[in-house]
Amino acid sequence: MSETANSAMPATLASAPGTASVQDLLGAIRRNIPLLVGGPVVAAVLSFGYTTYFVAPVFTARTTFLPPQSQQSGNSAAMASLGALATLAGGSGAARSSADQYLALMQSNNVSDRIIEHFKLMQGFGTSLKVDARMALAAMARMSYGKKDGLITVEVDHTDPKLAADIANQYVDELRRITTTLAVTEAQQRRSFFEQMLKQSRDRLTGAQQALLASGFNPGALKAEPKAAADAYARLKAEATGAEVRLQGLRGSLTDSAPEVIQQQSTLNALRAQLSRLEQAEGRGGDGPDYISKYREFKYQEALFDMYARQFEVARLDESREGGLIQVVDPATPPERKSKPLRAAIAIKTATASAAALVLLVLIRQVRRSRKQAALGGH
Protein backbone atom coordinates (compact mmCIF):
# COMPACT_ATOMS: atom_id res chain seq x y z
CA MET A 1 0.00 0.00 0.00
CA SER A 2 2.74 2.42 0.93
CA GLU A 3 4.77 1.49 -2.10
CA THR A 4 1.80 2.24 -4.35
CA ALA A 5 1.31 5.70 -2.76
CA ASN A 6 4.99 6.48 -2.98
CA SER A 7 5.07 5.56 -6.64
CA ALA A 8 1.97 7.69 -7.36
CA MET A 9 3.36 10.85 -5.76
CA PRO A 10 6.28 11.36 -8.15
CA ALA A 11 3.92 10.74 -11.05
CA THR A 12 1.61 13.45 -9.81
CA LEU A 13 4.33 16.02 -9.09
CA ALA A 14 6.35 15.24 -12.13
CA SER A 15 6.03 17.57 -15.01
CA ALA A 16 5.95 16.84 -18.69
CA PRO A 17 9.30 16.80 -20.43
CA GLY A 18 10.36 20.24 -21.53
CA THR A 19 8.14 22.10 -19.03
CA ALA A 20 9.00 23.78 -15.72
CA SER A 21 7.65 22.20 -12.56
CA VAL A 22 5.97 24.15 -9.78
CA GLN A 23 9.07 23.75 -7.65
CA ASP A 24 11.21 25.23 -10.42
CA LEU A 25 8.91 28.23 -10.76
CA LEU A 26 8.82 28.86 -7.00
CA GLY A 27 12.56 28.51 -6.87
CA ALA A 28 12.97 31.05 -9.63
CA ILE A 29 10.80 33.50 -7.71
CA ARG A 30 12.83 32.97 -4.51
CA ARG A 31 16.08 33.53 -6.36
CA ASN A 32 14.80 36.82 -7.83
CA ILE A 33 13.22 38.28 -4.68
CA PRO A 34 15.61 41.27 -4.66
CA LEU A 35 14.58 42.09 -8.22
CA LEU A 36 10.86 41.52 -7.55
CA VAL A 37 10.98 43.81 -4.49
CA GLY A 38 13.47 46.40 -5.58
CA GLY A 39 12.07 46.83 -9.09
CA PRO A 40 8.56 47.98 -8.00
CA VAL A 41 10.08 50.25 -5.36
CA VAL A 42 12.30 51.93 -7.93
CA ALA A 43 9.38 52.24 -10.37
CA ALA A 44 7.20 53.80 -7.67
CA VAL A 45 9.90 56.30 -6.73
CA LEU A 46 10.46 57.25 -10.36
CA SER A 47 6.76 57.70 -11.05
CA PHE A 48 6.34 59.76 -7.89
CA GLY A 49 9.25 61.98 -8.87
CA TYR A 50 8.02 62.35 -12.44
CA THR A 51 4.52 63.42 -11.38
CA THR A 52 6.07 65.79 -8.85
CA TYR A 53 8.53 67.63 -11.06
CA PHE A 54 7.32 67.13 -14.62
CA VAL A 55 3.49 66.99 -14.41
CA ALA A 56 1.72 70.27 -13.67
CA PRO A 57 -0.87 70.03 -10.89
CA VAL A 58 -4.50 70.28 -11.99
CA PHE A 59 -7.13 72.09 -9.92
CA THR A 60 -10.87 71.42 -10.09
CA ALA A 61 -13.28 74.32 -9.54
CA ARG A 62 -16.89 73.47 -8.80
CA THR A 63 -20.15 75.43 -8.80
CA THR A 64 -23.67 74.21 -8.10
CA PHE A 65 -26.95 75.92 -8.91
CA LEU A 66 -30.68 75.29 -8.87
CA PRO A 67 -32.19 75.24 -12.36
CA PRO A 68 -35.42 77.12 -13.14
CA GLN A 69 -38.56 75.66 -11.67
CA SER A 70 -41.76 75.71 -13.72
CA GLN A 71 -44.87 77.26 -12.20
CA GLN A 72 -47.76 74.88 -12.82
CA SER A 73 -50.38 76.61 -10.70
CA GLY A 74 -50.47 79.70 -12.87
CA ASN A 75 -50.40 77.53 -15.96
CA SER A 76 -53.50 75.62 -14.90
CA ALA A 77 -55.45 78.82 -14.32
CA ALA A 78 -54.31 80.27 -17.62
CA MET A 79 -55.26 77.17 -19.58
CA ALA A 80 -58.65 77.00 -17.90
CA SER A 81 -59.47 80.57 -18.87
CA LEU A 82 -57.95 80.21 -22.35
CA GLY A 83 -59.88 77.13 -23.32
CA ALA A 84 -59.69 76.61 -27.08
CA LEU A 85 -56.23 78.14 -27.56
CA ALA A 86 -54.61 75.95 -24.90
CA THR A 87 -53.09 73.49 -27.35
CA LEU A 88 -51.17 76.01 -29.41
CA ALA A 89 -50.06 77.90 -26.32
CA GLY A 90 -48.05 74.94 -25.07
CA GLY A 91 -50.60 73.84 -22.49
CA SER A 92 -49.72 70.20 -22.49
CA GLY A 93 -50.19 69.98 -18.72
CA ALA A 94 -46.55 69.14 -18.05
CA ALA A 95 -43.45 71.23 -17.97
CA ARG A 96 -41.36 70.79 -21.07
CA SER A 97 -38.20 72.02 -19.47
CA SER A 98 -35.88 69.60 -17.69
CA ALA A 99 -32.37 69.46 -16.31
CA ASP A 100 -31.27 67.67 -19.48
CA GLN A 101 -32.17 70.78 -21.48
CA TYR A 102 -29.96 73.00 -19.34
CA LEU A 103 -27.09 70.52 -19.52
CA ALA A 104 -27.43 70.45 -23.31
CA LEU A 105 -27.52 74.25 -23.45
CA MET A 106 -24.28 74.54 -21.48
CA GLN A 107 -22.64 72.01 -23.80
CA SER A 108 -23.88 73.75 -26.96
CA ASN A 109 -21.53 75.38 -29.46
CA ASN A 110 -23.14 78.73 -28.66
CA VAL A 111 -21.99 78.63 -25.05
CA SER A 112 -18.66 76.94 -25.80
CA ASP A 113 -17.68 79.50 -28.42
CA ARG A 114 -18.47 82.43 -26.15
CA ILE A 115 -16.39 80.93 -23.32
CA ILE A 116 -13.51 80.23 -25.70
CA GLU A 117 -13.58 83.80 -26.99
CA HIS A 118 -14.06 85.33 -23.55
CA PHE A 119 -11.00 83.64 -22.03
CA LYS A 120 -8.98 83.43 -25.29
CA LEU A 121 -8.66 79.67 -24.83
CA MET A 122 -7.54 79.00 -28.40
CA GLN A 123 -4.15 80.49 -27.56
CA GLY A 124 -4.05 78.54 -24.31
CA PHE A 125 -4.89 75.28 -26.07
CA GLY A 126 -2.39 76.03 -28.80
CA THR A 127 -4.84 75.51 -31.65
CA SER A 128 -6.04 77.59 -34.56
CA LEU A 129 -9.25 75.62 -35.11
CA LYS A 130 -12.30 76.34 -33.04
CA VAL A 131 -13.51 72.75 -33.31
CA ASP A 132 -10.33 71.57 -31.56
CA ALA A 133 -10.78 74.23 -28.89
CA ARG A 134 -14.34 72.99 -28.28
CA MET A 135 -13.08 69.43 -27.83
CA ALA A 136 -10.39 70.59 -25.40
CA LEU A 137 -12.92 72.62 -23.43
CA ALA A 138 -15.33 69.68 -23.30
CA ALA A 139 -12.52 67.48 -21.95
CA MET A 140 -11.84 69.84 -19.04
CA ALA A 141 -15.47 70.69 -18.16
CA ARG A 142 -18.07 68.33 -16.71
CA MET A 143 -21.77 68.91 -15.99
CA SER A 144 -24.00 66.63 -13.95
CA TYR A 145 -27.48 66.69 -12.45
CA GLY A 146 -28.30 65.34 -9.01
CA LYS A 147 -31.67 63.60 -9.13
CA LYS A 148 -31.97 63.57 -5.34
CA ASP A 149 -31.17 67.21 -4.59
CA GLY A 150 -32.19 68.67 -7.97
CA LEU A 151 -28.95 70.64 -8.32
CA ILE A 152 -26.75 70.98 -11.40
CA THR A 153 -22.99 70.81 -10.82
CA VAL A 154 -20.36 72.26 -13.14
CA GLU A 155 -16.73 71.16 -12.65
CA VAL A 156 -13.77 72.58 -14.58
CA ASP A 157 -10.19 71.26 -14.50
CA HIS A 158 -7.24 73.54 -15.19
CA THR A 159 -3.69 74.12 -14.06
CA ASP A 160 -4.67 77.70 -13.10
CA PRO A 161 -7.09 77.53 -10.15
CA LYS A 162 -8.44 81.05 -10.73
CA LEU A 163 -9.10 80.39 -14.41
CA ALA A 164 -10.84 77.13 -13.56
CA ALA A 165 -13.17 78.97 -11.17
CA ASP A 166 -13.82 81.77 -13.69
CA ILE A 167 -14.72 79.30 -16.44
CA ALA A 168 -17.10 77.39 -14.15
CA ASN A 169 -18.87 80.61 -13.15
CA GLN A 170 -18.96 81.72 -16.79
CA TYR A 171 -20.92 78.60 -17.68
CA VAL A 172 -23.65 79.73 -15.29
CA ASP A 173 -23.60 83.27 -16.68
CA GLU A 174 -23.87 81.97 -20.25
CA LEU A 175 -26.75 79.70 -19.29
CA ARG A 176 -28.51 82.64 -17.64
CA ARG A 177 -27.98 84.68 -20.81
CA ILE A 178 -29.25 82.03 -23.20
CA THR A 179 -32.36 81.27 -21.12
CA THR A 180 -33.40 84.91 -21.37
CA THR A 181 -33.35 84.73 -25.18
CA LEU A 182 -34.85 81.24 -25.62
CA ALA A 183 -38.27 80.07 -24.47
CA VAL A 184 -37.09 77.16 -22.35
CA THR A 185 -39.55 76.91 -19.49
CA GLU A 186 -43.26 76.35 -19.90
CA ALA A 187 -44.05 79.89 -18.76
CA GLN A 188 -41.54 81.33 -21.23
CA GLN A 189 -43.12 79.32 -24.03
CA ARG A 190 -46.58 80.69 -23.21
CA ARG A 191 -45.25 84.21 -22.87
CA SER A 192 -43.50 83.98 -26.23
CA PHE A 193 -46.61 82.56 -27.91
CA PHE A 194 -48.99 85.19 -26.56
CA GLU A 195 -46.51 87.97 -27.20
CA GLN A 196 -46.43 87.01 -30.87
CA MET A 197 -50.22 86.63 -31.09
CA LEU A 198 -50.72 89.93 -29.26
CA LYS A 199 -48.59 91.77 -31.81
CA GLN A 200 -50.52 90.25 -34.71
CA SER A 201 -53.86 91.00 -33.04
CA ARG A 202 -52.81 94.60 -32.37
CA ASP A 203 -52.03 95.12 -36.05
CA ARG A 204 -55.34 93.64 -37.12
CA LEU A 205 -57.20 95.71 -34.54
CA THR A 206 -55.52 98.88 -35.79
CA GLY A 207 -56.50 98.03 -39.37
CA ALA A 208 -60.11 97.32 -38.37
CA GLN A 209 -60.28 100.61 -36.48
CA GLN A 210 -58.95 102.56 -39.46
CA ALA A 211 -61.42 100.83 -41.78
CA LEU A 212 -64.24 101.66 -39.37
CA LEU A 213 -63.31 105.35 -39.30
CA ALA A 214 -62.99 105.42 -43.09
CA SER A 215 -66.54 104.08 -43.47
CA GLY A 216 -68.02 107.22 -41.87
CA PHE A 217 -68.36 105.85 -38.37
CA ASN A 218 -69.01 108.25 -35.54
CA PRO A 219 -69.89 107.55 -31.91
CA GLY A 220 -73.32 109.10 -32.34
CA ALA A 221 -74.23 106.60 -35.04
CA LEU A 222 -74.05 103.76 -32.51
CA LYS A 223 -77.21 105.04 -30.83
CA ALA A 224 -79.21 104.24 -33.96
CA GLU A 225 -77.52 100.90 -34.75
CA PRO A 226 -77.80 97.44 -33.14
CA LYS A 227 -74.66 97.66 -31.05
CA ALA A 228 -75.64 94.70 -28.86
CA ALA A 229 -76.08 92.49 -31.92
CA ALA A 230 -72.70 93.52 -33.26
CA ASP A 231 -71.06 92.74 -29.93
CA ALA A 232 -72.75 89.34 -29.79
CA TYR A 233 -71.58 88.56 -33.31
CA ALA A 234 -68.01 89.52 -32.41
CA ARG A 235 -68.02 87.24 -29.37
CA LEU A 236 -69.52 84.38 -31.37
CA LYS A 237 -66.91 84.76 -34.12
CA ALA A 238 -64.12 84.82 -31.53
CA GLU A 239 -65.46 81.58 -30.04
CA ALA A 240 -65.57 80.01 -33.49
CA THR A 241 -61.97 81.02 -34.11
CA GLY A 242 -60.91 79.51 -30.80
CA ALA A 243 -62.80 76.28 -31.55
CA GLU A 244 -61.10 76.03 -34.95
CA VAL A 245 -57.68 76.46 -33.39
CA ARG A 246 -58.51 73.84 -30.78
CA LEU A 247 -59.59 71.40 -33.50
CA GLN A 248 -56.31 71.92 -35.37
CA GLY A 249 -54.39 71.20 -32.20
CA LEU A 250 -56.33 67.98 -31.55
CA ARG A 251 -55.81 66.77 -35.10
CA GLY A 252 -52.09 67.18 -34.62
CA SER A 253 -52.08 64.41 -31.98
CA LEU A 254 -55.31 62.44 -32.60
CA THR A 255 -57.07 60.84 -35.55
CA ASP A 256 -60.26 62.24 -37.07
CA SER A 257 -62.23 59.33 -35.58
CA ALA A 258 -61.21 60.16 -32.01
CA PRO A 259 -64.15 61.18 -29.76
CA GLU A 260 -62.44 64.45 -28.81
CA VAL A 261 -61.99 65.42 -32.46
CA ILE A 262 -65.58 64.52 -33.35
CA GLN A 263 -66.94 66.50 -30.39
CA GLN A 264 -64.79 69.54 -31.22
CA GLN A 265 -65.85 69.35 -34.88
CA SER A 266 -69.50 69.33 -33.82
CA THR A 267 -68.93 72.37 -31.59
CA LEU A 268 -67.24 74.22 -34.45
CA ASN A 269 -70.04 73.33 -36.89
CA ALA A 270 -72.64 74.62 -34.41
CA LEU A 271 -70.79 77.93 -33.99
CA ARG A 272 -70.41 78.31 -37.75
CA ALA A 273 -74.11 77.63 -38.21
CA GLN A 274 -74.97 80.38 -35.73
CA LEU A 275 -72.64 82.78 -37.53
CA SER A 276 -74.21 81.90 -40.86
CA ARG A 277 -77.72 82.56 -39.51
CA LEU A 278 -76.66 85.93 -38.16
CA GLU A 279 -75.06 86.90 -41.46
CA GLN A 280 -78.11 85.78 -43.45
CA ALA A 281 -80.43 87.68 -41.14
CA GLU A 282 -78.40 90.83 -41.64
CA GLY A 283 -78.42 90.30 -45.41
CA ARG A 284 -82.22 90.06 -45.48
CA GLY A 285 -82.40 93.30 -43.56
CA GLY A 286 -81.41 95.26 -46.69
CA ASP A 287 -78.39 97.35 -47.45
CA GLY A 288 -77.31 99.09 -44.29
CA PRO A 289 -74.53 101.55 -43.62
CA ASP A 290 -71.08 100.12 -44.35
CA TYR A 291 -69.86 100.99 -40.91
CA ILE A 292 -72.05 98.22 -39.39
CA SER A 293 -69.91 95.43 -40.87
CA LYS A 294 -66.76 97.42 -40.14
CA TYR A 295 -67.84 97.88 -36.56
CA ARG A 296 -68.55 94.18 -36.24
CA GLU A 297 -65.04 93.32 -37.49
CA PHE A 298 -63.57 95.90 -35.14
CA LYS A 299 -65.34 94.36 -32.12
CA TYR A 300 -64.19 90.90 -33.19
CA GLN A 301 -60.55 91.98 -33.33
CA GLU A 302 -60.98 93.82 -30.05
CA ALA A 303 -62.28 90.66 -28.36
CA LEU A 304 -59.30 88.65 -29.62
CA PHE A 305 -56.90 91.37 -28.52
CA ASP A 306 -58.36 91.38 -25.00
CA MET A 307 -58.09 87.59 -24.82
CA TYR A 308 -54.45 87.56 -25.87
CA ALA A 309 -53.61 90.48 -23.59
CA ARG A 310 -55.01 88.69 -20.53
CA GLN A 311 -53.11 85.48 -21.24
CA PHE A 312 -49.93 87.41 -22.02
CA GLU A 313 -50.06 89.07 -18.60
CA VAL A 314 -50.69 85.73 -16.89
CA ALA A 315 -47.70 84.19 -18.69
CA ARG A 316 -45.50 87.15 -17.74
CA LEU A 317 -46.56 86.77 -14.10
CA ASP A 318 -45.71 83.04 -14.13
CA GLU A 319 -42.37 83.80 -15.73
CA SER A 320 -41.57 86.37 -13.05
CA ARG A 321 -42.43 83.83 -10.35
CA GLU A 322 -39.59 81.70 -11.61
CA GLY A 323 -37.34 84.22 -9.92
CA GLY A 324 -33.89 84.83 -11.30
CA LEU A 325 -34.31 81.52 -13.17
CA ILE A 326 -30.88 80.24 -12.13
CA GLN A 327 -30.17 80.33 -8.40
CA VAL A 328 -26.50 79.72 -7.61
CA VAL A 329 -26.03 77.69 -4.44
CA ASP A 330 -22.21 77.54 -4.35
CA PRO A 331 -20.30 79.81 -6.72
CA ALA A 332 -16.95 78.49 -7.91
CA THR A 333 -13.89 79.77 -6.02
CA PRO A 334 -10.21 79.10 -6.81
CA PRO A 335 -9.47 75.66 -5.28
CA GLU A 336 -6.72 75.53 -2.69
CA ARG A 337 -5.74 71.91 -3.25
CA LYS A 338 -4.95 70.15 -6.48
CA SER A 339 -7.17 67.36 -7.71
CA LYS A 340 -4.69 65.75 -10.09
CA PRO A 341 -2.30 64.03 -10.37
CA LEU A 342 -2.77 61.75 -7.35
CA ARG A 343 0.91 60.98 -6.85
CA ALA A 344 0.52 58.33 -4.15
CA ALA A 345 -2.14 56.43 -6.08
CA ILE A 346 -0.07 56.60 -9.26
CA ALA A 347 3.02 55.33 -7.40
CA ILE A 348 1.07 52.39 -5.92
CA LYS A 349 -0.42 51.47 -9.30
CA THR A 350 3.01 51.71 -10.94
CA ALA A 351 4.59 49.49 -8.26
CA THR A 352 1.80 46.91 -8.60
CA ALA A 353 2.03 46.84 -12.39
CA SER A 354 5.82 46.59 -12.38
CA ALA A 355 5.73 43.80 -9.77
CA ALA A 356 3.27 41.81 -11.89
CA ALA A 357 5.41 42.38 -15.01
CA LEU A 358 8.60 41.28 -13.25
CA VAL A 359 6.98 38.11 -11.84
CA LEU A 360 5.70 37.25 -15.30
CA LEU A 361 9.17 37.88 -16.77
CA VAL A 362 10.87 35.62 -14.17
CA LEU A 363 8.37 32.82 -14.83
CA ILE A 364 8.79 33.08 -18.60
CA ARG A 365 12.58 32.95 -18.23
CA GLN A 366 12.33 29.88 -16.04
CA VAL A 367 10.04 28.10 -18.49
CA ARG A 368 12.41 28.83 -21.37
CA ARG A 369 15.36 27.64 -19.31
CA SER A 370 13.58 24.37 -18.49
CA ARG A 371 12.76 23.78 -22.16
CA LYS A 372 16.34 24.47 -23.13
CA GLN A 373 17.66 22.03 -20.51
CA ALA A 374 15.18 19.39 -21.66
CA ALA A 375 16.32 19.83 -25.25
CA LEU A 376 19.98 19.46 -24.32
CA GLY A 377 19.24 16.38 -22.19
CA GLY A 378 17.43 14.74 -25.11
CA HIS A 379 20.57 14.96 -27.25
From TrEMBL:
<keyword id="KW-0472">Membrane</keyword>
<feature type="domain" description="Polysaccharide chain length determinant N-terminal">
    <location>
        <begin position="21"/>
        <end position="117"/>
    </location>
</feature>
<keyword id="KW-1003">Cell membrane</keyword>
<dbReference type="Pfam" id="PF02706">
    <property type="entry name" value="Wzz"/>
</dbReference>
<keyword id="KW-0812">Transmembrane</keyword>
<dbReference type="InterPro" id="IPR003856">
    <property type="entry name" value="LPS_length_determ_N"/>
</dbReference>
<protein>
    <submittedName>
        <fullName>Wzz/FepE/Etk N-terminal domain-containing protein</fullName>
    </submittedName>
</protein>
<feature type="transmembrane region" description="Helical">
    <location>
        <begin position="344"/>
        <end position="364"/>
    </location>
</feature>
<keyword id="KW-1133">Transmembrane helix</keyword>
<dbReference type="InterPro" id="IPR050445">
    <property type="entry name" value="Bact_polysacc_biosynth/exp"/>
</dbReference>
